[in-house]
Amino acid sequence: MARMAATFRVSRPVARHLAALYDQAFSRAPGNQPQRLKDLLYDLGHNEWFMKSMYMGCLRHELPAFIRGIHTGESLAGAQWTAEQIEEYGQTYLRGLLDMILSDEVAKTRTKPYETLLRALDVDGYAVVDGRVVAKDAAAPLVAEQRAYLEGLYERLGLIEQALAKKHYQQSEADYVNGVPGNAISNARHFVEVVLRNTARRVSQLAPPVLSDRDIRSQKAVHSYLLSTGFLSEAEYELVRKLYGILSGKGGHPNMAKQDEARLTRHYALITCEFVLLRLDNLTAPKVLDPVRERFVCLLDQRRGSLAHPPSLPTPSA
Hints:
Largest sheet: 3 strands, antiparallel
Number of helices: 15
Strand content: under 5%
Helix content: 55-70%
Radius of gyration: 24 Å
Distance between the termini: 38 Å
Number of strands: 3
Strand order of the largest sheet: 1-3-2
Order of helices and strands: EHHHHHHHEEHHHHHHHH
């Protein structure tokens, strides 16, 4: 694991759960917690404005709103900074708050919000080692960007059921963070279903006949259709079919914790969906011709009766 890099950015879900943990560890804990909070901030070198804002937020039970506002910029809006400076300074404040709370012994006793924050970091590709946030791999800083990119790609392609796709995607993440791994896996499967059936809908508009409503609701029929049109190769078809089988499995893996199983299967599901959507994007609005698109176009022409045989794909060594 690599130490947290300067590129680490606190995502909105992490900021939300960070705010909830501060609320439990300071606003709702017994004793003079507002003063303890201010003393901790002083020891870390924070300025008077920030210490006072956190102190008053703690006294008034407004600490969660203030911390969430640091992420959105609302809590820093009165400062004479540009929008870019507000965003960067906000991230600096949030990273400092994150480091502080992860090493606070009182916070660790608030088991549920503390563990929820750890799972939120895990979703973004980070872990906590010795009270410090570390990247699990070099791709960790890209996870939050990938989340936004995947949602935006679905929308940009103009596929229907956008609200349903977003609901399952976000609910799978929320279930994982909230420690409900079975539901996290189920919603990941539902997201895969929405992506595949609406990809098949779009492909069928390019390659008549259009899939029937009955077939479009059958994942087996959808998978077979995407194979028959050449949208998926044999190997890709097997990958999708087996992934769907894993996501639909009952009882979990006997040698793996359910939470770990949810983390891995969600990861596989999201990567597969991104692959399918990027393939569709390339086929419907190509920038350059490639072997996959050539195969697909030729199969469409064949189905329309203009070609007898599609060309074979070149071998990897070609």
